Structures are given as structure tokens and as C-alpha cells.
Amino acid sequence: MIPPALLDRARIVAGPEVGEDAARGLARATGRPVARVPGDGPFVYVGATLPDALRGPDLIWFHSVNAGTDALVHRADRPWPPGVPLTRTVGRMGERIAQYVLGWVLAECQSVPEYAAQHARAEWRRLPSELVAGQTAVVHGTGRIGSAVASLLRACSIRTVAATRTPRPVPPGFDAVVPAGEPVAARWVVAALPLTGATTGYFGAERFAAMGGATFLNVGRGATVDLGALGEALRAGTVGRAVLDVLPDEPAAPGDPCWRLPRTVVTSHSAGVTADEDVVTDFTACLREWTAGKRPALAVDPARGY
What's the rounded Cα separation, in Å, for the pair 17 and 124? Predict the structure, then answer.
């Protein structure tokens, strides 16, 4: 916990990733000026990265403008500063990512990629379509984002199954829960996992071989997927298609092998872009909870990475 008296006199410092509109929003929401450099005394930092020069005793809280914090806490050369609380921005990211997933699901069911290719060839030919109602989607990752994805798919009468690494009750938005290693006959497999030591390379040859031709969508973290294994599965047909919003190495250069994966679309880590109002809203909520002596709902455990 942060002592309220310390929090009251701390400066709010915004990193270069925080735009002027967001900085003004933070100032309005907190009722105190927002600086770009810490100065003397305790400070709270809002940004995407933690500069080495700021890793000192005056840093009392770091609020990430991103939902994923693995790049902050998984640096072998720079462990997270002991005792410094870390919170994150989620905002309406779950809604945005859920909309992204549903958009690609519906596009495939309506043969949108094939019709676009036919249009380019000036070709008139009817193609089959699928009804999403009654299909099954397995979602790996049952946090805010995974639950939002499941809820929207479920609203379209898609059966949603949570694949979890530890036993738990059925999470919100889901119809059922199964152990992560249990095969499920599914039309869609959605990855919404954080990056931790346990999830690095989580989707490898064995998991892809068990997908039975499902379409695979990754909206979590790129390094949870072995792209070599995914390529083999696509060529073998055990994965029907792939939609990848995240990659192990970003941005992908024009010569990156990811562009040559068969039946795959790569998007530019854009499924859940953080808006200025998300940063302001979530930071303010965390500040309110710290002030009330509570651990914020958006607090991150640096040891776990989420």
C-alpha cells in the first residue's frame, strides 16, 4: 500500500508515450499539474516504459498505459524495482479486442477473404457461408480480455469454452471450462494469454496438432506462439487459418517469415489500441483506490507478470 500522505504530495509525471490530451486529462482528473520530468521528491510515473534514470527511491508508483506489462517485469537485465506498485490500463480494450475477434469470425463465415480475391479477378462465383450459431470457440486466457471475447461470441450463440491451466469454476462469459490440455472439438481457438514463464511457447506443435482444423486467433502475446509449429500445422491442415494480431518480434519486417504463413492474416498489434480516455479513467480509478487504502483492481503482481 502507498501511504496516503506520501501520495498526496507526490508529483504526477507523464512519460513521452502520454500525449498532451491524455496529460491534460490526468491533470483535470487528479486536480494537480502533470509534469514531464520528476524533479525532487516522491513521484508517480505514467508511461509505457520505465527509464533507468527513474528507478530510484522517489518512484512510489508506476501506472502503465498498456494492458500488457510483460515488457516491464520480464527484463532479466533490469528486474522490477522491489516494493514499487505497478498498475495497468485496460479501459475498453476488452470490448475492442472482442469486436476484432468477432469481425474476423464473421468475415470467415461469410467468405469475405475469398470474395475480396474474386473481386480483384473480376470473377462472379457464389461461395458457401456458415452460420456461427451453434459453433464452439475455445478461449485460452480468462481475464478481462478473454472474458469480453467470450461474452461477445456467446451473444452470437457461439458456445464458449474456457481452457484453463488450473481448475476453477466457469468464468463469466463462458458456457463451460476444461483443462487446457483437454482436446475440444472447436471451430475457433482464441489465444488471450498474458506472457509469463508458463505461457512462453504455450502454443506449440502438440496443441496445434489437436486443433482439428480450427481457425486460430492470437490477441494475447506473440511469444506465447511457436510460429514454426504454427506454420507446420497450417501446412498440415490441423490449423485451418490463423489471424495474428501479435508476434514474438514486432514490428515484423517485410522479409519476416510470418508474412509467408499460408492462410494467415497478420495485423499490426491493433486489436486493442489504448485510447487517451482509457489511460485517464483507469489511472484515476487506481488513484482513488490507493487513496482509500485499497489495492487497485488493476494492480499487477510483478512476480507473476499480470
Answer: 48
